[in-house]
Amino acid sequence: MTTELELELELELKQESYCEREYRDCRLQTCYVQSPAYPGLYPRALNCRYKLHTRQPYIKLYLQNEQFAVDGQRCENVMTCPIRPIGSGNEHCPFDWLAVYDGRDEHSPLIGKFCGLGKFPFSIIGTSQYMYVEFVTSPAGPLLNTGFHFNVGNWPGHVETAGIKHGVCDWLLSSDSLKDSSASEGIFLSIAHWYPPNTSCSYHIKGHVGEIVRLYFPSFRINRIESPILKYEGDCGESLTIYDSDHADPARIIKTFCDTFSRPMEKVDFVSTSPSLYVQFDSKTGSYSGSSLYYWAHYDFFNNTRFGDPVPNTLCDEVMYAWKHPGGRLRSPLNSLIFKRTGGSDVRCQYKFVTDKRLYARAIIEVNSVSFKELPYNSNACTRCHEERVDKLVIWEERDKYQNNLACFCDNIPRAVRVISSADQMNLEMIVQGQHAITSYFKNPNPLFEATYEFAHGPLCGPITLGPSPDGELVFPYKKALAMVAGPMAPPEHHYRREKCIWELKVAAQRDLWLNLEKARFADRSCESAKIEVYLAGRLEPRFVVCPENISMARDLPILTTAELGATGADQEPLPVLIQYTGDGQPGRNIFRLVWSELFHLPRNPDGSLAASLLQDAGCDFRCPGDTEVCIPRHLLCNGVANCPNVTHSSTLDQLTRHIEWNLEQLGLLHHAGEYRQLVLHDESPEICLRRDLSELPYGKLSLIALGLCLMFALLFAILRRMCRRSPKQSGLHQLQEDY
C-alpha cells in the first residue's frame, strides 16, 4: 500500500531502471536521496540517476548525521584497508563516484564529482530549483562501501531582485526597475549558491542623471571560507568592493571587505557622487554553498539636482552666479539624505546669490511657501524667529562685515514675500534642528520651502539709492551707462534683455513726497512693454502703477504724506520708497524722467487754523496753491522744475489764490500784490521768477567784478609800456653797431 508521503513526493520508479528516480516539489525533511541498498553495501556496476526539484530556489543537497562512503576503501580486508578521505575530481575518483550537476540533466554545469569516506563537510546549493545527481560504481570494486543518504531542501534566503540579470550573477539594478517594482528600496543578497573558483559577480546600481545612490547593509557577517572548491592559503580569498563609479575603477574605491581581516559594517551608508555605484564580489576559491561574506544589501536613489553651483566640501551649499544662473526656481534640497548624514548636528543649507555690478546690482528672492513640521514636544515657539532654536529660513546680506538680517520665516506664510538686496550679494539659509531632522524630513517628498529668484538693476538703471534731497530726478536710461550697453563692445544679447530696475528713494523726516512723471516715451502702448510701480514700506501692493495705457493720469499723482511713508518719529526718516521699472531694456525704446519734490506740510491748530508758530522752519518759504496744504523752501523756486503739485483742476479759485499775499511777502514782492491778486502763482510762474531775478540782482558782486577788471587792465598797460621804453645809451650803442 502506498503511503501519503510517497504520494506527495511523487516518487516515480522508472521502468527498466534499477535506481533512476525523480523527486518533485521537495521540501525540508521530505525528500531523501539514497544509494541502492543503503544503509547496506551498494552493488557493483551501477549507473543511478536522480532528478531533484524544489518549489523554491535555491535547491540544497546535504547530509545530516550520516557518513558518506563512496569508494572509501579499495581493498577486500576492511581491517587493514586504508581509508580514502573525501575528495573530488576525476583524478581522485576514477572508479566509484557521485556527480552533482546544477540543472535538469547531465548537460548542465558540473558542480563536482565526489568520492571517499567520512562526514561530508558541506552542503551543495544549486542556482535554481533543479539538480541532477549521478551515481556510478565500477564493475569490479570491493563490496565495502555503504554509499550515501542525502536530504533535499532549498535555501530560504531567496529574494526577488528588481533588476536585469546577465549570466549567473551579474546584475543591472536601475532606478527604473525599482520604480516598476513599486518598492522604495531595492535588495540584493550575497551569493547563496555554489560558484566555481575565480568567480566575479557584479551589481551595477544605476540611477538617472542628477541622482545619487545609497547602499547600506542591514545585516553583514564575515565568516571563514567553509566550503571552498579550491584551496587558497593567502589573504582575501573572497572580497566585496564598492566603487563610486559605473565600473570597477581602482581609483574610485569606497570600501573593500575581505574574508580574512575586514570587519563588517552594518547600517552604514555608502553614497555615490554620481548616478552609479558599482559593487563587485571576487572569489579565488569558489564555494559549494555560498559566499563567506554574508550580507543583505539595500539600495535606493536620491535626486541630487542642484539649482546653482555646489560648494565643495559642504553638505548642501550652493552659489547662484548671475552670469550663469540669472534667475529660476529654488526649493529645499531634493536629496533628503542630507537629513540623515548629519550625525545629530543641525542641517544648514546656504544659497548665495552673487552678481557683478557690470551686469546687475541687486538680487531678488520671492519666498512662495514655507512648510516646516510642527513638533508637539518642542517648547520653542515661532515667536522670535532669529533667536529661537526652531526650523527656519533666514535671508540676510553682509554689510560692513556684519550680517544684516532681512527676513526670517519659521512658520507657514499666507502669501508670497519678496526680499530685495541692497547690494550685489544676498544669502538664503535653511536651518533644520538636528535632533529631529531624520524623523521629520528623511524621505519626505514635500519641499520645506519654495522660492524664485532673479537678478535686477542693470547698468541702464543707474544708482540704486536716491535722496534724501528737497528735489531730484530719476532718468531712465542712465546716460553714463549707454556707452557700456549700446556701444560697439556691448554684447548683442543685451539689447533683447528685459530690464528690471529697483530704486530706493529716501525722504527726509517730516516731509511729504510728490512724484511727477515729467517726460515719458514708450515704444508700445501696452503695459507689458513698460511699467513703473511705486511701493510704500510694508505694502505688498504698489501704491501707483504707471504704464503707457494710463500715461495721462501719471502727471497728477497724489501727494504721499508723512503718515503714508511710514515715519515712526518726528526726527526719523521714513523707510525708503521703492520705485520699480519693468520693461524693454533696449536703449531708446523706453525713456522717462520722473522728478520728485519733498514738501513741508502746513501745520494746523486743533481748530483748523494755521499754526504760525510752527512755520519758523526755513523749509517753508512758498505755499503751494490749492488745497494741498504743502509748502516748499525758497531754493526750489524758479529752478526749472514744477515742485508744487498741479491741482488747478481739483481746487477752487479761492483755494488757488489764498496764499498769494503771504508768498509775495516772503519774496519781497508784496508791492505787486494788486497786480497778481487774480492770478494763480505757482513756483515756476514768470511773474514771480522775472521780478525775483531783477530784485535779487547781486549789485555788490557786480561792482567788485568791474573794479577787478579795471585793475587788471591798468596792470597790463603798465607792463606793456615798460617793455616798450628804451634808454639813450642803448640807442647809441645800437647805432654804432650798425655803422661798423
From TrEMBL:
Residues 19-155, 169-298 form the CUB domain. InterPro entries: CUB_dom (IPR000859), Non-NMDA_GluR_Accessory (IPR053207), Sperma_CUB_dom_sf (IPR035914). Signal peptide: none annotated. One of its GO terms (cellular component) is plasma membrane. The chain crosses the membrane at residues 699-720. Keywords: Disulfide bond, Membrane, Transmembrane, Transmembrane helix. This is GL17501. It comes from Drosophila persimilis.
